[in-house]
């Protein structure tokens, strides 16, 4: 039975994590957000910088990090250790009962190692909503905890897996939509999806699947926004109440309006 409780699954991008002032502002607003919530964070550029100091060169194919054994150790230390624990400590200082977790903790997210096709991505995990252990999240919420998820899962055979943070946020949102009224929120450094990418104020307030062809024709949708929209529509079709894409600095607007109309771009079916 679906609960009437609202739940926010909020993903914060690396651009905000890398900006000290922006990150501090976001965390303050996240801590103040009432009700049930989950924070999913990316890794930013810190893993690359620390890897360079350790002699580990980052390799990418079409923007996706190749995760060999050395890189897996690196991202585990940086994502699951340094970044995750810093975020948790800062949220605790703000009175938010945060708990830092990877997918291996409480068997929260058991993914599948990406198969080798044209490219061997190494220790990268592919996650689906059915791989999320919902009852563990319910236990955490019942105990008053606020999960802070690092972009790491596991395969159930003792191996950690580097996993895309957007994917984790979407899968967790879909899985929990069977129990809660879920809003999935992607926070980044823009005000929303822009009609004119060169104009930071040209935010498109609402996008439905039928709007996409015309927006593509206008040139409004390009770069990495199309995959994000595909994931957003898929999440809505799977039970997520709505998806929002908007600015980290305006997170407090979520609680000001239950519809999210004052926050970035709303994605609905």
From TrEMBL:
Binding site for substrate: 43-44, 65, 162
A family per Pfam: AA_kinase
Catalytic activity: N-acetyl-L-glutamate + ATP = N-acetyl-L-glutamyl 5-phosphate + ADP
Single GO BP term: L-arginine biosynthetic process via ornithine
Span of domain Aspartate/glutamate/uridylate kinase: 7-245
InterPro entries, per database record: AceGlu_kinase-like_sf, AcgluKinase_fam, ArgB, Asp/Glu/Uridylate_kinase
Keyword Ribonucleoprotein set for record: no
Subcellular location: Cytoplasm
GO CC terms: cytoplasm
Keywords: Amino-acid biosynthesis, Arginine biosynthesis, ATP-binding, Cytoplasm, Kinase, Nucleotide-binding, Transferase
Pathway linked to the protein: Amino-acid biosynthesis; L-arginine biosynthesis; N(2)-acetyl-L-ornithine from L-glutamate: step 2/4
Main EC class the enzyme belongs to: transferase
NCBIfam families, alphabetized: argB
Similarity comment: family membership: Belongs to the acetylglutamate kinase family. ArgB subfamily.
Name used for this protein in its record: Acetylglutamate kinase
Species of origin: Thermoflavifilum thermophilum
